[in-house]
């Protein structure tokens, strides 16, 4: 007969072997599918180290007096179950159930875990009624974007979510929102749930309903946001958050937000009152808000105190409407119908755009936007070369959505010349530490929608007229701002791609402008 330590050792060895096998099965499964196929069902598995970190946090917050009744509604090959078996004694788990929609995965998982006390059901979680009630749910749900879900199925899912949770999600909600909200009916009173989901729910519109669910229907107690520089999933471009809540009629007044490093040892952790959260549109950067840098900036003027910000124009077809000067000459087109426009930021080597006496950019390859507001008859009669050029675009360009919706397909939106411009999207590189670059525009060039255009308000314009040297000061100071000051206003995608909308940039603190009037 085996002694207890002996059988425990045997069990660990068996488990290690199984985990190795599980990883092979997972890898083989992924190798057989294209990324597009995997996206349709959100098939991106959790790295085993992360799964262990999550399960170990769960166990710290779980009272083992109550035996574990475990449920994973998006099982895959069972990374969380494997971590759970590795981190607690098997006798602590009295019940385990898993759902998986993919028949291949469900079968592979059932084979893998055949000798264990877990029921694996091939089923669609969003359409399933609870088989039992559980006190521990750990899940990495499918992130599937709304447009990849069949519209009829999406309606069904939304109706069910509303019925189960009382929350009305917009049609734009990703599938994971429904998973989270529907899971409440599978939970015992007091049950603990940990969900690994994209952190963007904290800042995008469709996430509002999920935040409402978490605040009003659960006892949310912790949100950990992973550092975006360290992607959790190598093959899916998302930054992740872990959301922890209990099902309880009693709601604690505050919750913890943490950021960076690891879930169990975060770089920052702060407590926030839930009532304060109700008035916060974006939760993503709450854990940053305690840093002295930000406190100092609270009373600093904002960009909106000095500038108007607009996205650059959408031409409808840059290839057709934006031409190099040499090409305009080659085609014999009249330069009077072109206005200077900046090339995209990657072609700009300087922070300041110089101009010639006509206001044209002094750049190796100056670009011009075709900007003619004459009607076609007039053009045909007086500018035959331009007419021929327009004719050459009639088939390919005139029918594009944006061109089609204009009064006349080649009429461009009219814009003032911006004094400063800034990239709309960017990624920090070794050479350029900031994802966003501000450029001072001394030319008459406008910009396309890969830029944001900054227009000084009347007061600032007057100050700049009196003291033109302020322009360089503002330029240098804007480019010196720490990247995270801009990042926390906008959005950051996995892989470090940053994006900022005009209304978001307006809230940028500009401490260096505090005494500009004097
Ligand atoms: C993000 S993966 C997570 C897999 C595994 N739990 C892990 O963490 O590695 C999501 C899993 O959910 C499955 N899935 C997608 N839609 C589902 C649905 N409606 N019901 C149940 N499972 C679903 C996918 O096939 C995939 O295996």
Account of the protein in words:
33% of the residues lie in helices and 19% in strands. It is an alpha/beta fold and 518 residues long. It has 3 domains: 4-250, Rossmann fold; 303-371 and 415-513, Adenine-n6-DNA-methyltransferase TaqI, Chain A, domain 2 (Alpha-Beta Complex), CATH 3.90.220; 372-411, no CATH class. A hairpin with a 3-residue loop joins strand 19 (491-493) and strand 20 (497-499). Mean pLDDT is 89; it is low at 289-298. The chain binds S-adenosylmethionine. The site of S-adenosylmethionine has 23 residues, from helix 4 and strand 2.
Strand order of the largest sheet: 3-2-1-4-5-7-6-8-9
Broad CATH class of the largest domain: Alpha Beta
- For this structure, the CATH topology of the largest domain is Rossmann fold
Bound molecules: S-adenosylmethionine
What is the CA–CA distance across the termini? 89 Å
Categorize the overall geometry: elongated
* CATH structural architecture of the largest domain: 3-Layer(aba) Sandwich
Q: How many domains would you count in the coordinates? A: 3
Q: Report the mean per-residue pLDDT as an integer.
A: 89
Give the biggest beta sheet: 9 strands, mixed
- Classify the helix fraction into a percent range: 25-40%
Radius of gyration: 28 Å
Strand content: 15-25%
Uncertain residue ranges: 289-298
Tally of helical runs: 19
């Amino acid at each position: 007969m085996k002694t207890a330590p002996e059988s425990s050792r045997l069990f660990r060895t068996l488990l290690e072997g199984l985990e190795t096998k599980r990883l092979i099965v997972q890898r083989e499964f992924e190798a057989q599918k294209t990324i597009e196929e995997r996206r349709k069902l959100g098939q991106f598995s959790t790295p085993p180290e992360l799964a262990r970190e999550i399960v170990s946090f769960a166990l710290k917050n779980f009272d083992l007096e109550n035996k574990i009744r475990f449920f994973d509604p998006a099982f895959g090959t069972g990374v969380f179950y494997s971590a759970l078996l590795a981190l607690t004694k098997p006798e602590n788990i009295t019940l385990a159930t898993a759902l998986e929609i993919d028949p291949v995965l469900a079968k592979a998982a059932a084979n893998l875990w055949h000798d264990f006390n877990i029921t694996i059901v091939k089923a669609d979680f969003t359409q399933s009624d609870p088989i039992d009630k559980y006190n521990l749910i750990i899940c990495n749900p499918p992130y599937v974007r709304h447009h990849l879900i069949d519209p009829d199925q999406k309606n069904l899912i939304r109706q069910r979510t509303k019925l189960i949770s009382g929350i009305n999600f917009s049609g734009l909600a990703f599938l994971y929102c429904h998973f989270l909200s529907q899971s409440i009916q599978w939970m015992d009173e007091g049950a603990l749930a940990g969900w690994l989901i994209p952190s963007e729910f904290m800042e995008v519109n469709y996430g509002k309903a999920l935040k409402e669910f978490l605040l009003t229907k659960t006892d949310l107690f912790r949100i950990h946001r992973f550092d975006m520089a360290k992607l959790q999933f190598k093959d899916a471009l998302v930054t992740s958050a872990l959301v922890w809540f209990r099902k309880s009629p009693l709601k604690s007044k505050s919750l913890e937000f943490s950021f960076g490093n690891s879930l169990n040892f975060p770089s920052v952790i702060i407590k926030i009152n839930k009532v304060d959260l109700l008035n916060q549109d974006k939760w993503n950067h709450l854990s940053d808000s305690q840093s002295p840098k930000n406190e100092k900036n609270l009373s600093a003027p904002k960009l909106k105190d000095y500038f108007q910000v607009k996205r650059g124009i959408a031409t409808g077809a840059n290839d057709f409407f934006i031409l190099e000067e040499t090409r305009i000459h080659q085609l014999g087109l009249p330069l009077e119908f072109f206005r200077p426009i900046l090339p995209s930021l990657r072609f700009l080597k300087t922070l300041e755009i110089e101009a010639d006496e006509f206001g044209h950019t002094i750049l190796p390859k100056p670009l011009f936007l075709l900007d003619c507001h004459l009607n076609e008859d007039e053009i045909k009669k007086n500018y035959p070369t331009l007419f021929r050029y327009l004719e050459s675009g009639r088939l390919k360009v005139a029918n594009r959505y944006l061109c089609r919706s204009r009064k006349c397909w080649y009429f461009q939106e009219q814009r003032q010349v911006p004094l400063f411009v800034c990239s709309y999207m960017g990624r920090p590189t070794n050479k350029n530490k900031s994802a966003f670059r501000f450029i001072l525009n001394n030319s008459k060039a406008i910009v396309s929608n890969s830029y944001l255009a900054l227009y000084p308000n009347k007061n600032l314009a007057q100050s700049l007229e009196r003291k033109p040297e302020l322009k360089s000061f503002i330029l240098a100071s804007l480019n010196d701002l720490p990247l995270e000051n801009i990042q926390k206003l906008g959005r950051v995608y996995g892989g470090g791609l940053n994006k900022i909308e005009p209304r978001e940039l307006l809230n940028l603190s500009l401490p260096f402008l505090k005494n500009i009037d004097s």
